[in-house]
Write a structure and sequence with these properties.
Number of strands: 5
Structural class: alpha/beta
Oligomer: single chain
Number of helices: 5
Length: 145
């Protein structure tokens, strides 16, 4: 059975759900190479008290460790929210083949900031955007009460 973008984004959504249960901003990510998940991550900024502990950063680190190299050529990152400019910088340097994100981030996303990923990295957006947005909105609505 060949796994597809939908399957992998659903796995990223499961990671986002874990973050929500841990009272972290619900963003999840997975890194895939050759149809196989090599890294799973979600936001850990609260637990680690580290503003850089975004899901993407955690996933990049885990994937690099798995492949024993710093470049993620041939890999795809699936993430539930458009990466911020900090994460976009790390994604640029990691040289992923693809970044697929669910929901756009009109306030802090790299696209609205005019930041670019590596020239060889293809970007796709919108896959399960509504599901990702529901998680984010529910998290922040509870915080605002």
């Amino acid at each position: 059975m060949e796994l597809d973008d939908q399957y992998f984004m659903q796995q990223a959504l499961k990671e986002a759900q874990k973050a929500l249960e841990e009272e972290e901003v619900p963003v999840g990510a997975v890194v895939v190479v050759g149809g196989r998940i090599i890294a799973r991550a979600h936001n850990l900024t609260e637990r680690l008290r580290d503003v850089t502990a975004h899901a993407e950063m955690q996933a990049i680190t885990a994937a690099a460790d798995f492949i024993n190299g710093k470049y993620l050529v041939g890999c795809t990152l699936y993430v539930t929210l458009e990466p911020c400019i900090m994460c976009a910088g790390a994604l640029f340097w990691s040289q992923l083949d693809r970044v697929v994100f669910a929901a756009s981030d009109s306030k802090r996303g790299f696209l609205q900031a005019g930041v670019f990923l590596h020239p060889k990295t293809k970007v796709q957006s919108g896959l399960f955007a509504n599901e990702a947005k529901v998680l984010i909105d529910s998290f922040f609505s509870k915080k605002r009460k």
